Amino acid sequence: MPQTTGALAERFIYALDQLAQAPSFVKSKYQTDVYQEANRLIDADDGFENLYQHAARFEEAGVFQDGPWESAEKLQPPLVAGSLKAKGLPMIIEVLSELRMLAIAEGKASNTNVTRTMAEEFLNEVMVLNLNLLFPDASESARIEKHENDEKAEKLFTFLSTHLSSTALIQTLIHEIKRLTAQRPIMIKRIVSMIRMAKEMVSQDTEKNDTTELKQFISAIEGPSPLSGQFKDVHAYRSQLKTIPRADLISESVALATSMRDTGLVAPHHATLLRFLSKQNPGLLTYALSLNSKGSANLEENRELVIQLIRSSIFPGTRQAVYGLAMMLERGVLSHSPVAPGLRRLIELDIRPDVRNALYSTTNTGEGVTANSILVAGTIQVLGQPLGVGQGFNPTCQAARGISLWAQHAPGFLLEIIPRAARDGDLDFTFEGAQIHSKDLKGGLAPDLDKELDPVSLVLVPHLDKIYSEMMTRVALRGEDGHRWVNPAFYGNWVQKGFSSVFDPITGYVLDYNGFIKLFYATHHPDYNDDYELIYPNPVGIFITNVHGKLLGLHAVSITRIAKDPQGIYRIYFYNPNNDGSQNWGQNIEPSVNGSGEQEGESSLPFDAFTSRLYAFHYNPYEQGDAYAVENTIVQNIRTLAQESWGRDYTWV
Amino acid sequence: MELDQLELNTSIEEAEKTKPYYTALVGWSVQAIEAAARMNRPFIVVGPAEFQPYAEKHDIPFVGWDFNKLNEGSDQLYKQLRDMGAELAVPLYEECVEWAGALNARFREDPKVFNRSLLLRDKGMMKRKAQISGIKVGVFEEARDKEDVERFLKRVNEALLKLEGDHFDPIHVKPLDKAGSVGHLAVYTKEDINQIQDTDFPLLMESHLDGQEFSCEAFIHKGKVQFLNITEYVRLGYSNFVPASPSLEEKRPLIEKAVQQLVDAFEIEYGVIHPEYFITQDGTLHFGEVAARVPGGHIFELIERAYGFSAYEAQILCSDPSTTEEELKEFFPDPYDYQNYAGCLMVHPSIEYVEDLKIPEELEDHPYFEKHDMFTPPQGKVAERVGFGNHYGTIFFFGRDSEEMRDLLETYETYNFYI
């Protein structure tokens, strides 16, 4: 007969007592039994309740001693999911650790380094990051990636959610949605799934403010206008459009456009409306896109082309391109002479079968959108939202940075390489006089590209990634940081030829850091650089550090602007291709994505804070200001920040 | 000398005498450290350097040492330990036996202690010594290369009057200085010889011994066996239980005599030994080999479960010459005084890739089942087995009937816990 929960709980208590009594050096001998018994309880009915009764004792007894979970203050919410999915021991200890956090959050246990609030915030964040486990959705990817431990994790999260305040949870969730939408990414899948989950969580006791905010997001994807709210089904909505008078069409257009402008999210009805207007009432398009004067002028100038683009690429399945189209018109990209023919070429381009299949995978099946439509819609988005390009789960920040830069400053070039890759399966770059063809190359940083990317990236990244790697390989033995030569060749002449890095190329030691800081100030900071403005984005290398300031790795971002924020402080505005521009970098350095003068898609940091994470940048050797004038206190502050974070992993000379 | 000075001197002398001396635990075993701490004995751990950070974190007095590197540094180690106040050394695993021997030779000022410890580290020397002392052993020889092995296999089978085409009786080969069953191989044919690794030479070859194999754990003080445990092997390296079943236990007087004979022959004075024997139906004992360290197969844990005393404490107690007879008497129970059998099954995956762990409910619900220490493994290739050391997990049983215990161990020995 299987043992009852009561019997299992007794065995667990016995094991925990044994562990608690053991001297510190012999805990490991008794931990195994505690984990074993905990595992049995996790599987039992009411097991979590039983385990939780003793959670206040876990730390003191030594449940986490000498392991990765030892210090509660060092735990990180993003790592929880991985442990829960891992089989065996990590899952068990992770569960016990969550219960420990809950005990701290509820004041049942105390921890000198973690307060009640901190513990609660930790758990809220864990919940938000793992909402798919709390509300298993039926999405394709969730189904395919089903893990064996999901059931246990679901049980855990259900248990935690009964103890945590749903208000705090919904607030965290709304905060997370706002944080992500503020950056206006092209790929919105994650945002949409978070909104869907938040919708399920709303209950009677949810605070009114929260509900209002949440409703805005929910309707943004489901139908934010009077008519779309009434006719959720796009077929019915389309029929209705034919029946309403012009005045109602205008208010319908304004309502949809307002929601889109507020959230960056497009409802499927919006695409339907745009198609309808382009045929019946093109004069109203400017309302439906809520264009500013520059946008309207651009629309007027290119009306035939815009209508053609809408007909060939804007469908409910590619609805986010509505936002891209509005932004593209306001950026005036269509006025560049190569853009119009470049876009027209894509409509009828003969796309290779492999690229065709990759493009199809970006929309749901059964929507009947052609690969060309998807590619044109994607191109519109990239041209409209150059800072919305993301690298997805791939280590291809360089390629994303390139697409973003070209979309901003060289749309003609971008429109040349897209058909090359989509039709010919090849890109060629000239590097120091030699031709590099991507079709002849193997490998690259991401041989198994994650396909969760926008259409243009899907087409280009496999080629760009290989070319960039090949260029870096060719300069690998020059005894200097290869980015010096590769960046100008890869991105184009917009990149300055001067280059400075913190590393001594031969030894890898940090060399003359003070000089590095001063040079950066003298070439970039308006107080010291003789007022030379930054004209093109500067591709720079940064150290990515975690919330504790520990070095995680190197990353590529682009400085887009340097300007005073509303408080009058100089900030560096930058494009971070990882589309999660507000991760906490430790030492109170937390990039902001809105509220400090950022444009859509930009992250920003005060000038000195950003400098403390910089490891390489380009500069114009003919535009240097006064390096000597940079105050020592500024340099010393930055040096301290650097030495106490990423600097711990390097030798300083 | 002034009077007050004299007084001062005596008080120092007294302090020296009553000063608690330290026990050096040679090797690394948290169980042994726990035992020493529980006995309130001051101790120093002499262990591999990689344990230094752990020792520091938990305030364990620690000296880092590389046991595999032969050097002249034992004198330096001795002086370091002496200065710290150590007076005896207890070996915890195979590679530490001669180091503890060298240290104890200095502590006790008896150089022979070291030579005796070497006897336990060379399986050839061990056999020869046993044979000289009149202990029954198989035919054995040392081999330096594969040709030696081939010749020995042939000659043993000639002596057994095997004819051309008959199946050969196997011979067994084992490296001279490896722990337990590391590198042990049964050779039936010439082809088997190719499986021997070059690094296993020099090795000991011996004829196959018939009969039931078992091990003893003898706790020795002042050259006398204070307590003898008999461990019954269900399958060598896979399962065993303590104490032995009645049919083997009834031979206890015979076994006790044989073990004492071995202790006398090897001039072992203090500590624990772990000899292995083969016994035939008619009660003839053949000596296999002997080690002077903590035995494998969780035998110390089983002894604790069955007899209720900590074998680690017993080892430390018996390693200390100044332990009194009263202390020993009080410590050890009557070997016939046990209620239940304690057994364990060591699990090793029978497949190359493990994906999941499956513990049958009937096993967990069996009244003899106590606990196991297996967790669902992260997916991956199974490590190759070296000796019987790196099993994936252990299942512990405890129950009244030795036949039931044997059945359980045999039943689950072939069960695939890992799939």
Automatic annotation (TrEMBL), chain B:
InterPro entries: ATP-dep_AA_Ligase (IPR052032), ATP-grasp (IPR011761)
Superkingdom of origin: Bacteria
Keywords annotated in UniProt: ATP-binding, Ligase, Nucleotide-binding
SUPFAM superfamilies registered for this protein in UniProt: Glutathione synthetase ATP-binding domain-like (SSF56059)
Domain ATP-grasp, first and last residues per copy: 127-320
UniProt keyword Cell membrane present: no
Xref: PROSITE patterns: ATP_GRASP
Entry keyword Nucleotide-binding: yes
Protein name per Swiss-Prot or TrEMBL: ATP-grasp domain-containing protein
Organism: Halobacillus kuroshimensis
Taxonomic lineage of the native organism: Bacteria, Bacillati, Bacillota, Bacilli, Bacillales
